[in-house]
Amino acid sequence: MHIPDAFIPIWQGAIYWIIALVFIALALRWARNEMNEEKLPLVAVLAAGIFALQSFNLPVSMGTSGHLVGGALAAIILGSPFAAIFILTLVLIVQAVLFGDGGITTLGANIINMGVIGGFVGYYTFKGLMDITRSMPVSVFFAAWLACLIPSLACAVEMFLAGTFPLMEGLVAMGIYHAIIGVIEGFVTVAAIYLITAARPDLVDTNVNTPAGA
Amino acid sequence: MIENLFQIERDAYKDSIIHRIDARVKIAIAFAAIIALVAVPYSTMIYTVGIIFFLFFCILWACTRLSFVTYLRRAWAIIPLWGVIIFFQIFLKNKYYTEYDVLYSLPFGISIYAQSVEFAFILLVKFVICISFIILLSSTTKMYEMLEGAARMGLPAEFALALGMMIRYLFVFGYMFRKINETLKTKCFDALIATCRTGTASANWVILLALCSSGPTSRASGCIPACSAGGMVGTVTYLSRGNR
To answer: How far is residue B116's CA from residue B109's CA, in Å, rounded to a whole number?
Structure first.
């Protein structure tokens, strides 16, 4: 899902960068207001953990690569979609600058896909489902599944707009592949949140710890 | 990716003219080269521009006193993944050409087009040279220098602080990953080769993440390799192998 350099024309990359910068500014505001000495290590650990989860890349036929995203995990644990944007921005910067996984000119598009779309879809799906189902595992699973699937479809659309990827083939290849990967992401996210809430419930900001979320 | 972390940092700690240049200069050169290459339209003009930039890269790499094999090894870790995607371009029509000439017709109505082959090659040239400059930057700049340079160039303090901590945890994770794999290998189980590698690896990372989150400086992180490799994951995989 990490779009590399050269796959998007420079002017489109610039537009994605401008949009991403708006959200990065909002994520920075979140960090300034919310990130204290207790949360900073958690943010760093989550960023390193998501980096590790994303390390396992698998090629998608006629498309880009497939891997876990982690946007929902960050957003749910830290209780804000802007936390996901902040963390995914860190992860994507390190991946692009150190490892060449994802481009520099396409970093804006990658932040929009995985941080913005992944974070917002994951967080609000979780909130909505928690109100309806009152079940943490079910809500987290579907939130993580959608937060993996929707960014992949956005990636396919961006590649189509760039002219490097046919739309239908892209949507089908990326959609099917990430719908399957999303199941793994769902289980991993449920397990991670369950283990973290069991070990340190005070670190989790969303209401997964309340009786309704238990 | 995370397995290469130690090698990249080892390369960055070597000494050469390029290694001694200020991180900000290297960041600026790498980014400028990438932006310039991406800004070139999808046309055969990229061949000329590409040769010039690649020669520039080769001169810089020669000055690093790092082996060319190091570059090839790192490029090989990145290029095949995207090489597959670039390869598939030869079967696809795109908006950059109006007319297509069929080079080969394959069964099931699949064709290879001359223009698509050209487009795939243009993408490959752009992609490989962009990656080369990233490899040059990361192989010659220590991570803390890069972070310091980025902070001086205007990276917000919140990002710099969190990135600094994240990088430290990456090394902790990398170390644990290596330990777990070594321990699993002693039980004749290679987590990277196994068919269920994503599942196994993900399970390892969930355990790492949860235990690290229980306290960044807690003793829990110290027992992770032992728990996950010798205790939980290791036992499961050992038993499952024994049942085959």
So the answer is: 16
A54 assigned to some structural domain: yes
Residues in chain B: 244
Mean pLDDT by 10-residue block, N- to C-terminus, for chain A (214 residues)? 90 96 95 86 89 70 63 90 94 91 92 94 94 91 94 93 87 86 88 86 67 43
End-to-end distance of chain B based on CA atoms, in angstroms?
31
DSSP label at residue A58:
E
Please indicate, yes or no, if residue A1 is contained in any of the structural domains. Answer: no
Q: Is residue A2 part of a domain?
A: no
Find the domain containing A194 and state its range.
10-213
Q: Does A51 touch chain B (CB under 8 A)?
A: yes
Which residues fall within 8 angstroms of residue A137, CB to CB, at 6 or more apart? A190, A194
Residue A9 forms contact with B (CB below 8 Å): yes
B93 contact residues in A (CB cutoff 8 A): 166
Which residues in chain A have Cβ-Cβ distances shorter than 8 Å to B193?
A: none
pLDDT for A206? 63
pTM: 0.84
Domain membership flag for residue A3: no
Q: Are B26 and B64 in contact (CB under 8 A)?
A: no
Residue B156 — φ and ψ, nearest 5°? -55, 145
> Which of B38, B91, B137 is nearest residue A97 as measured by Cβ atoms?
B137
Say if B88 is an interface residue toward chain A (CB within 8 Å).
Answer: yes
Would you call A141 an interface residue with chain B, using a CB distance cutoff of 8 Å?
Answer: no
Nearest to residue A83, comparing CAs of A27, A127, A23, A147? A27
Q: Give the pLDDT confidence of B151-201 residue by residue, as tens digits.
A: 999 889 889 999 999 988 888 888 887 888 788 777 766 555 554 455 545
Count how many Cα atoms sit within 13 Å of the Cα of residue B183 in the half-sphere of its side chain: 20
Select from B141, B81, B162 the least CA-distant residue to A50.
B162
Domain range summary for chain B, segments of one domain joined by +: 2-152, 157-243
CATH number at residue A79: 1.10.1760.20
